[in-house]
Amino acid sequence: MIIPVIEARNVSKVLGTGAGQVRALKNIDLSISGGKLTMLMGPSGSGKTTLLSILGCMLAPTEGSVFICGHATQGAGPERLAEIRRQHIGFVFQSFHLFPTLTAEENVQLALDVRGEQRRRAKAKSREVLERVGLAQKTAAFPRDLSGGEQQRVAIARAIVAEPSAILADEPTAALDSTNGQAIMTILARAGRQHGRAVLVVTHDTRLLEFADRILYIEDGVLTHEERPTANVYRIRA
What we know:
Elements: E1 6-15, E2 22-32, E3 36-41, H1 48-55, E4 63-68, E5 71-72, H2 78-88, E6 89-92, H3 104-113, H4 119-132, H5 148-160, E7 166-170, H6 178-193, E8 198-203, E9 214-219, E10 222-227, H7 233-237
Parallel strand pairs: 3-8, 3-9, 6-7, 7-8
Antiparallel strand pairs: 1-2, 1-4, 4-5, 9-10
Helix pairs in contact: 3-4, 3-5, 4-5, 5-6
């Protein structure tokens, strides 16, 4: 039996207290396998980012269980959750989250430094991954010297350099123009299909649907339905 990379079982999340309490997620069941790009769509306030945070072990569910590569996160303390994130999950954010005083190479290498990677090997891997995302000539550039699309490529390189089992991306193209957005989605799709990773992208941009192997729709904290396109643009280009 193939073990899903990420699995949620009956996951619910309550945010706030008292009169301001909101049930952000309601009985979510979800299984995500490797080698695919899954897209999570829904209006603002539908629970997309909350679900992504729970699946990425950044936030604990109020009810239910999450499994990462078969490892249960229920009852895990902060150190164990951090270990699961380091081993299995790479994050890509809308606002890039790069350190302004570090070069592109140093920003990527940081993901290996926190995992205790030997420095020379970490440096070589960081350069190799930057080349893979089309930034071979930008390794010494600081974020201020990079375009928005280039900064997001650095962020993706940082997310994949440690070879995680899953990449979770929260609105990764929202701050980019259409051309750069398409380029970023191509890189993410390739990261899933060529390297067997599970890629989950939260977005509200319907122009990106052509990249998805699977599309999940969420509204008011409930997964309402899903679609499985018969072909996507990445397969056509590959």
